[in-house]
Amino acid sequence: MKKITKKSSTRSKHSVRCACASCKDPIDSEIWEAKQLSEHGFYIHVVPEHDPQSPSGFNAHTHGIDLIGHPDFQITLPLKSFDHVAAFFHEMFSRVKKGQSFSHGDIIHDLIANDYVVRLIDATECDRPVLRIIFADKDNNVMPHDMSPNEAIAQYGYSKTSP
Description:
The chain has helices spanning 29-40, 82-97, 149-156; strands spanning 17-18, 27-28, 43-46, 60-63, 72-75, 107-108, 118-125, 128-135. The chain is of the alpha+beta class.
C-alpha cells in the first residue's frame, strides 16, 4: 500500500470572490483555479452545501484532469476532512500522470490501507462525465447489492442493483 501524503490546497468551494473561514482572505476564483492548474495540474471543488446532484448531498470533485485526456474524479461519500478528499484525488491524479488509465468498473486494491478496495463508476457532475470513487463498506464491499442500503445510496444513488 502506498501511503497517501500529498499536500492539499486550502481552496475548496465558493463564488467568484470568497472571504470564508476556509480561504481566510478574499480571492478571485478564476485566478485561484488558474494557479492550481499551473501548480498541480488540477484543482478540487467541494460543494459547500447539500448538492441535489449528489446521492448523499456531498460532492467533491476535480477539474482539469480532463485536460490531459482522462475523466475527472468525484467523491460523494462524506469523508472526515478535506485533507482526506485531497489525498485521494492527488493520488489518483499522480497515477494518471504516470500513465495509468481508469474506467468504469475498475476495482483498485492499493489506494487504501488494510486491503480495502475502491470501485470506479461512470457518473455525471454538472453535465460532464466523471469517475466516481466508491469506497468499500466495513466488510470491504463495493457493489451496491452487497452494501448496506444507506452506504449504497450515498455513493451510487440506489441500493439493490449494480450499474
